[in-house]
């Protein structure tokens, strides 16, 4: 593995840490890439020359005098196509997946300044999601292009296991050690977002053995639902996992049946009657009374009540955000949420802004267009560990 850190990042982060207690601020980290020519044209922005990628740190506190200010810029290789940033459960390490190269970049968040190590993962083409076991001992990486799940050791980052999947295009992943199961979605072909799947693969966690698949659509096969993300409802017995169907415009549940030691699938919510599509990410508040779901087309953050029956979410409110609403970062006090509005540089779903939501009032209070105006798309947002809630992940 190879370690590197820019001097500019070191200097800036030292300053941020030194001044963090002296002023009101909430710092967010976003990996970004150059907007496509089509997106630049639609937004009436000029091009910036050669393609750029990097990690930006911005102040996203709407009450801060530096609100929206770009504080740190950390360049990344322009052909990496850095995809997402995932914190381990202690929020002391961050894992950056990549679509363009078989690599993980691992950030040590305990160092001042942060240090990043490159880890080559030769068997992983088109790295997508990184998920952690409940005890934080193992990480799981889905490889959308090579149809594998890579299992690694959080302490050493050594690869423990490579699981070959019977179903193509793995993307979302969820782990439940209590029932010894791992779930993996089958989404779309990475090259053109075609050939959408309809299945969730069920794996025995302890052995890595594939036990079977579950269909998450009522339509005849091929249903083209493109299940994308998975998330277990925290602390619920029997376990319930939600899955978002990207092309199916729906939420489905997989509920554990202790008698049969298998999952029962059911549709939980249909976005189609609302003329809303492309559901993506899911999050929970600490009390597990509310679930938050993003939809990219058009961009919304949806608030569901799950306090009565986790398998039957009740839609409370839909907040309009920006085109391509995707990931959300939540403050630890659950007062603010920050919605990143970009999905893979796709036309009509790559606005490139951040929408600030007051969770107590359940209303949009501000928008950040710093990266958009510079000609970039943020591909993910997380708050720095001091402020960040894992929100059920």
What would your notes on this structure say?
The longest helix is centred in the N-terminal third of the chain and has 13 residues, at 7-19. This protein is globular. The chain has three helices and 31 strands. It has a five-stranded antiparallel β-sheet, with no helix packed on it. It has two domains: 1-75 and 274-393, no CATH class; 79-270, Methylamine Dehydrogenase, Chain H (7 Propeller). Helices cover 6% and strands 48% of the residues. Strand 11 and strand 12 form a beta hairpin.
Distance between the termini: 27 Å
Strand content: over 45%
State the major sheet. Answer: 5 strands, antiparallel
Question: What is the overall silhouette?
Answer: globular
Helical percentage: under 10%
Q: Averaging pLDDT over every residue, what do you get?
A: 92
Per DSSP, the total helix count is: 3
Number of strands: 31
Uncertain ranges? 2-15, 17-22
Classification by helices and strands: mainly beta
Q: Count structural domains.
A: 2
Gyration radius, rounded: 20 Å
């Amino acid at each position: 593995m190879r370690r590197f850190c820019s001097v500019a990042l070191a200097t800036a982060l030292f300053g941020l840490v030194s001044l963090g207690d002296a002023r009101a601020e909430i710092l967010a980290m976003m990996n970004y890439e150059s907007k496509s020519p089509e997106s630049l044209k639609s937004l009436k922005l000029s091009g910036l020359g050669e393609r750029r990628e990097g990690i930006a740190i911005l102040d996203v506190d709407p009450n801060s005098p530096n609100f929206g200010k770009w504080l740190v810029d950390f360049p990344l290789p322009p052909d990496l196509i850095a995809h997402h940033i995932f914190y381990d459960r202690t929020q002391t390490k961050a894992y950056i997946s990549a679509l363009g190269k078989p690599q993980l970049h691992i950030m040590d968040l305990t160092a001042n300044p942060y240090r990043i190590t490159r880890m080559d993962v030769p068997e992983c083409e088109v790295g997508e999601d990184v998920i952690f076991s409940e005890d934080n001992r193992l990480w799981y990486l889905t490889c959308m292009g090579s149809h594998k799940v890579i299992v690694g050791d959080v302490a050493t980052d050594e690869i423990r296991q490579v699981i070959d999947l019977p179903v193509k295009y793995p993307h979302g992943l969820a782990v439940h050690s209590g029932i010894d199961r791992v779930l993996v979605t089958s989404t779309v072909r990475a090259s053109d977002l075609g050939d959408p799947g309809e299945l969730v693969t069920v794996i025995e966690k302890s052995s890595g053995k594939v036990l079977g698949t579950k269909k998450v659509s009522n339509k005849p096969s091929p249903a083209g639902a493109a299940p994308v993300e998975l998330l277990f409802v925290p602390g619920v017995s029997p376990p319930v996992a939600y899955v978002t169907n990207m092309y199916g415009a729906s939420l489905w549940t997989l509920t554990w049946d202790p008698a049969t030691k298998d999952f029962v699938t059911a549709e939980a919510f249909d976005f189609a009657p609302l003329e809303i599509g492309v559901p993506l990410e899911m999050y929970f508040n600490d009390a597990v009374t509310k679930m938050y779901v993003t939809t990219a087309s058009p961009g919304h953050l949806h608030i569901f009540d799950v306090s009565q029956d986790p398998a039957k979410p009740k839609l409370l409110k839909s907040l309009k955000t920006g085109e391509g609403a995707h990931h959300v970062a939540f403050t630890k006090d659950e007062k603010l949420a920050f919605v990143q509005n970009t999905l893979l540089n796709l036309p009509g779903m790559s606005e490139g802004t951040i929408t600030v939501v007051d969770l107590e009032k359940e209303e949009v209070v501000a928008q950040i267009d710093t990266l958009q105006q510079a000609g970039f798309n943020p591909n993910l947002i997380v708050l720095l560990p001091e402020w960040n809630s894992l929100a059920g992940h």
